Every structure is written in C-alpha cells, then in structure tokens.
C-alpha cells in the first residue's frame, strides 16, 4: 500500500463513530430500503466496521444468518456491543479470504469499504465464489471521485491550500474507482451479471463548527489521521481556514454514495 494510505487508521471504534459512523448508518438504511433482498437468506458482510450496515441488514433484510467480517478487532468489539442479535456472527477476516464456503451465501454486502481494498478484483472474485447461483452482490462506496462527500472534500481542499502535499492524500485523487462507470466496469469484469449502479444521497448536518471539526482531530480515517499528524500550529491554521469558510453553524452538506448490485450466474 502506498504512502498516500499512511493515515488510514481504522482501529478506534468510538472515534470512527464520531467521524463517519453517524453518516454510515443513514446511508446504510437508505441502501437497504432499495435492495429488496429475499427474506430468510444467508448473508455475508465484508468490512462491517462498527456495525452500521449490520444493524440495517438485521432490521430490514430479515436474514436467516449473517456473517459480518472485519480485520479490526477494535471495530468488531464495538459492533458486537452495538448489535447483540443471535442471527449475526462477527469474525475477523480480510477481503479476498471470506470465512464462507463456496456457494453458501445468498446476499453478499459491503458498505463504504471496497475503495480501500488494495486488491479489489480478488475481493470481488471471492465474493462471487461465496455466492450461490443467482445470489446477489450489493455494496456502496462514497462518491469521493466526484466530491460527493462534501464535508471531507471541503477538508482536503483547505488542507491542500496550506500544505500542497496533502493533495495526494485526498480520497478524490486516491480512489478513481468511486465513479458510476468504474464501479459497473469492475463488477462486470469480475463476472457478475445484471450490474446496476445508482446514487444514494443523504444530508450531513453539523450542529456547529465544533461538531464538524472535532471528529477530524480524533485520528480515525484518512482525513482525521492526517489532521492528528499535524503540528499544533498547522492544525490551528487549518481549523481557522475552515471555520472562516463554514461559519459557526449549523452546517449542512450533501453526501452521495454509489450503490452497486450484481448477480452471480444461475
């Protein structure tokens, strides 16, 4: 993984909740509302994090079983505490090596994860391996490439004005995969049929500037990892620039994810 990923810290469950978890819960609910998955299915979730999509699947998907996988023990502990449901089993695991036997899963899902996976073709191939004939893959990623996650986009633009080297860390540059066309092309190349990609949009509303800024200082995620790495005076300059542009609040911004769906051949 390149130097641009050096701030991708995914170990602090509570810090992630403050930064992204509250928004990931909203987009997970909107995603599941459109999925129309069959009741009583066997599911696997790649990259469950703190359990936002896991909870949505259990609430709206009526699964028979769900295996939720993540490489972070800290995130798994947070998810187990947040989602005490006997239908779900949380397991530590990596993309490309799911703890699921061949052709045993009806629905494979992932939320806000696949753009971070270094070998995405291998991960998609492994998801296809686990699906039964006619089973469904469904996932979503933020539209980083299109500036669709506005509060993160605003952070990186201000950071790059003060530190040109920050531009290389911006998810908009790092993740060209996060476009409608690229997502559809990779799913088709992996062997999925009937691939479709649609936008899912939510609002991110911050009560005041502190509500916007504080999660960036906690170190969980690429932008917060970068912010936490700054010397105090440079962090203060970045805060001042952003506050001058955004004001004291409330602050409302848009957020768009691309939701993909594809089917394993029958």
Characterise the protein shown here.
With 266 residues, the chain is an alpha/beta fold. The chain has one domain (3-263): Vaccinia Virus protein VP39 (Rossmann fold), CATH 3.40.50. Helices cover 41% and strands 23% of the residues. A 7-stranded mixed sheet has the order 3-2-1-4-5-7-6. Strand 2 (65-70), helix 3 (73-82) and strand 3 (88-92) form a beta-alpha-beta unit. Helix 1 packs parallel to helix 2 and helix 5 (150-162) packs across helix 10. The mean pLDDT is 93.
Features:
single chain, 266 residues, alpha/beta, Rossmann fold, seven-stranded mixed β-sheet
Write a short abstract of this structure.
The chain is an alpha/beta fold and 266 residues long. Helix content is 41%, strand content 23%. Strands 3-2-1-4-5-7-6 form a seven-stranded mixed beta sheet.
What is the overall pLDDT average? 93
Main-sheet strand order equals 3-2-1-4-5-7-6
Q: Give me the Rg, rounded.
A: 18 Å
Helix segment count? 10
Question: What does the largest sheet look like?
Answer: 7 strands, mixed
Global outline: globular
The CATH architecture category equals: 3-Layer(aba) Sandwich
The run of helices and strands is HEHEHEEHEHHHEHHHE
CATH class: Alpha Beta
Which structural class do the helices and strands define? alpha/beta
Count of separate structural domains: 1
